[in-house]
Amino acid sequence: MTTPGLPLRQLLMSLGEPLVELQAAPQGLDVPVRDVAILDPEDPPTAAPGELVLAIGARGRAALPALRAAGRANAAAVAVKLDGPGQADALREAATDAGVALLSVRRETRWEHLDSLARAIIAGPDAPDTAGTPEHNAGDLFSLAQTVAVLTNGIVSVEDTSSRVLAYSRSSDSDEVDDLRRLSILGWQGPEPYLSKLREWGIFQHLRTSDAPIAVEPHPELGLRRRLAIGIRAGAQPLGTIWVQEGAQPLAPLAEQALIGAARVAAAQLVRRRRELSADVRLTQTLLTGLLEGSTGPQSLATHLGLDLRRPATVLAYSAHTTEALHRSDVTGLISVHTAARHRTALLAPIDSRVYVLLPELPPGLPMTTVRDWASEVVEAAWDHLGVPLRAAIGSTVDGLAQVPDSRAQADRILDAMGRGGVELDVAALIDVQAEVLVSEMLALLQERTGLRDPRLTALTAYDLRHGTRLAESVLAWLDALGEVRVAADALHIHPNTLRYRVRRAEQLTGIDLTQPQQRLLAMLQLRLPAED
Length: 533
What we know:
By secondary structure, this protein is of the alpha+beta class. The protein has four domains: about 5-125, Udp-n-acetylmuramoylalanyl-d-glutamate--2,6- Diaminopimelate Ligase, Chain: A, domain 1, CATH 3.40.1390; about 140-275, 2-Layer Sandwich (Beta-Lactamase), CATH 3.30.450; about 300-440, Alpha-Beta Plaits, CATH 3.30.70.270; about 450-525, Orthogonal Bundle (Arc Repressor Mutant, subunit A). The chain has helices spanning about 10-15, 65-70, 85-100, 110-125, 140-150, 180-185, 190-200, 205-210, 255-295, 300-305, 330-340, 370-385, 405-420, 435-450, 455-465, 470-480, 485-490, 495-510, 515-525; strands at about 5, 20-25, 30-35, 35-40, 50-55, 75-80, 100-105, 155-160, 165-170, 215, 225-235, 235-245, 315-320, 345-350, 355-360, 390-395, 425-430. A five-stranded mixed sheet has the order 2-7-6-5-4, with helices on both faces. The chain is elongated and about 100 Å long. It starts with 5 loop residues before the first strand and ends in a 7-residue tail after the last helix. This is PucR family transcriptional regulator. It comes from Streptomyces kaniharaensis. Belongs to the CdaR family. Pfam families: GGDEF_2, HTH_30.
């Protein structure tokens, strides 16, 4: 059933001037906004009826296809970032021709924050929290912020323990908003210079340890107006903060009392949301792990997250050079953050000593180089920021979620080969290491099933261990050099005559005939196995 949606007028009132500005509304301000869609610059321009389309990465005339597609689909509005007034004129004309509203977004605004905020406002206070992040469906907190604003005669924001803005009240006059409030909303987090001052004044320490409100006196030199703050706490556990900034009028006499009640209401809401989110995350992990392992079909995960079963998908697999490194939460968190920045619906599942990333709903024809670049960013960031060397394997791009286990299996094959050595790449797809993967798997088979080995070659490696000789190594170097004695001798840093002697000696001791192609092939494989004591 189609949802009625929220009038564009109400969405604009809730978002407020700090984030967006209306440039054109050819259908008026009562058009319903039912959903938010992010249009990636690599995706073909598409839209659905009633959507607010966030055209990320498209500025100036580059946004024209998004406007036209939104108009054809009866979308509600398109939001873009502008580089100058000339762009606004051209886009306003295009939006009017397309019959779709045009919103300009402040350059400092982060797209993911605008997306989260708009979804929360559209969902309203009674919507269930199923989106998977605290910012989504936070309409109850917005309603609370607006109520506190009325009771205190101030301008309200609700933040988490990392000073990220979860919700805020509307302000009718942007001149009332000070720099801290404006920059916090635009960046979704308080700017560090201001936060440092609040730490220096002991404000955060008070908010973490006390249930009482605290006043922050005005500092005009810093662009700070007077404000009240109170910590949101569940027992001794801090959950966040409510801030009330004084506007053009003084704060109400009972502002502190209103803050105490609001903090208790907010605590109940945040505790409930954490519990719901925790249960949702556990269910998502269970369904994702089951899909990757082939024990659960794709329908359950698709239904739970609203994924399209038939769109292309790929699995990335990461492993560390040391087996314990990937158990560190900071490594897993780094993989999660970097991947989510590149693909909105990416899902992550640590399984044993590896971390798997499912990239569902990929755009058709997405170049392999794009996915490779995403994986390379993760590997480089893990080394630069954490000092952890990672390997990344890119599984095959499959036609839908039902084939995800095949993509995961291919990624595992590549990582297995990288772990056994012989692959110098840190990021690889099967096309990069096809031969290495096949040879690695044949060696694994020989390692496991000793009956498939040639006992004469086994005896040769045993002879080297007993006598401290290097006959097997010399034979393998000669075979790898295709019989070029000088090339093999140079690789071993020995005289060519020494190499010739070692090869003849190996043939005499074992009875193998290296003039036979089959025996040479088996020797090239088996002599790559690690020597057994």
